[in-house]
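Encode chain A's predicted structure.
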Amino acid sequence: MAFVALVLLLALASSAACTRSTSSSGAAPDDAGSEGQRAIQNKGSDTLVNLALAWAEAYRELRPDVAIAVTGGGSGTGIAALINGTVDIANASREMKEGEVEQARANGIEPVEHLVAIDALAVIVNPANPVNQLTIDQIADIYTARITNWQEVGGDDAPIILVSRETNSGTHVYFLEEVVRQGDSENSDIFAPETLLMPSSVGITSEIQRNPHAIGYDGLGYVTEHEKLIAVAPDTASPYVLPSVQSGADGSYAIARGLYMYTAGEPTGNIADFITWIVSPAGQQIVADLGFVPLPQE
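Encoded structure for chain A:
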């Protein structure tokens, strides 16, 4: 799939007849219960798309008068739509970049960040691969082709096949900045040119299942029993920890990240109500149900 877009439109039939106008709290007004009500437009991260769809479906049960349209396409796609004023909520598996915030402000939009879940980003291999653990340094060296054979990290004598998300993915950006470059803003390392860039999480898991010599990474909620999780350590002196909801929540797993929604200014009306429900115990239970890490509840 060169591009995956999942759309869920949850609305009364009258919502299709609505007209669009400008609003400070989103791409268009969100008057709950008004005749000709417009759907809340929610677009972006493919990591978040299944979670966003589940939230939208569950919220419909509570608020059948509220329409929510959920679309994937990648964090960069959602953020670009927010900058252009064509969505109410941009989903992102990374924080907005400084340049993106500046572009939004140049368009009269002040992005507001909402942390909605935590994701333990899993490093995965084929179940036939005997390697069980890697340090962050080893993972970085693998993805920059300083290590090219599994034998160098205790595996079989076989070339390592690198699998990654494509560049518009927030997961790709996060993995590049926090794993490959290890959080060093002066580090200019990039993925090795032979890295296979996949347009979706399904593409990564399919390649891992097919190729016993492949390595990839994906949100924990997308990993199945057909891939093997790698235990990760920050360095050789630290314990190796498998990704899980618990290790992501307690901070013991080295590659955990926030998942975000961005709005144009502080949300109001239906958009504010929806995000408030997402971070509530009810919304966060769906996070846990889908294998992501819920936010701590006060």
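Residues 110 and 176 are 27 Å apart (CA to CA).
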